Amino acid sequence: MKKAQFVFILLILALLSVSKANAQEFTVQSEDLKETLNDEQVFSGFGCTGKNISPSLKWINAPHNTKSFAVTVYDPDAPTGHGWWHWVIFNIPANTYELKKDAGNPQKKAAPKECIQSISDSGKKGFSGACPPVGDKPHRYIFTVYALKISKLDADEKTPPALVGSLLNQNAIATSSITAYYGR
User: Fold this and answer.
1) How confident is the model at residue 114 (pLDDT cuts 50, 70, 90)?
2) What is the pLDDT of residue 11?
3) Distance from C-alpha of 58 to C-alpha of 63, rounded to nearest angstrom
4) What local confidence, expressed as pLDDT, does residue 4 receive?
């Protein structure tokens, strides 16, 4: 009987490993992002002359128990001692799987209406493009989509981005990121 139990356990373990191997990974993609940011994703201000347009983002294979999404853009290389938050958008409905190009411009109303775009470190709501100091090595811009276990964050459009980031990390089921670089 013990040999039959052992074989049964091995069979169950084999089935579980095949199931995990076939599971799809939560992934974010963008037609607009390449290895290096282009003029569209560069800030207009602080000495930069870009178009300040957020890229399109699509995500697939979110965990089945996702109740909402959030997106951040973070530059860990900014010479601030704590990095720089370029975009924080949250309370994206669970049935949403993309943000269109320029959704980071609150005036265009291209993001789902339920979303909240809080302030970036530039002090403005919505997307604030790249603008590293002249002569710095190229900075990393990390575009992250969070699948969350809650439908609404306890935050608003004036909540500081680092606090939103903390709330996101506390409630994340899964994350997926794209990193692009920019220097000048």
Assistant:
1) very high
2) 41
3) 15
4) 52
β-strand partners of 89: 71, 117
Contact 46, 86 (CB under 8 A): no
What is the Cα–Cα distance from 76 to 84, expressed in whole angstroms?
Answer: 6
- 53-80 per-residue burial string, b: 16 or more CB within 10 A, e: under 16: bbbbbebeebeeebebbbbbbbbebbee
Q: How far apart are CA 91 and CA 97, in angstroms?
A: 13
Selected residue with higher pLDDT from 3 and 164:
164
Domains defined for the chain, CATH in brackets: 24-182 (3.90.280.10)
Beta strands in the chain (DSSP E): 27-29, 44-45, 48-49, 57-60, 68-75, 84-93, 98-99, 116-117, 139-148, 172-182
The 3-state DSSP class for residue 44 equals strand
Q: β-pairing, 27-29 with 57-60?
A: antiparallel
**pTM assigned to the model:** 0.87
**Sheet with 57-60, edge to edge strand ranges:** 27-29, 57-60, 98-99
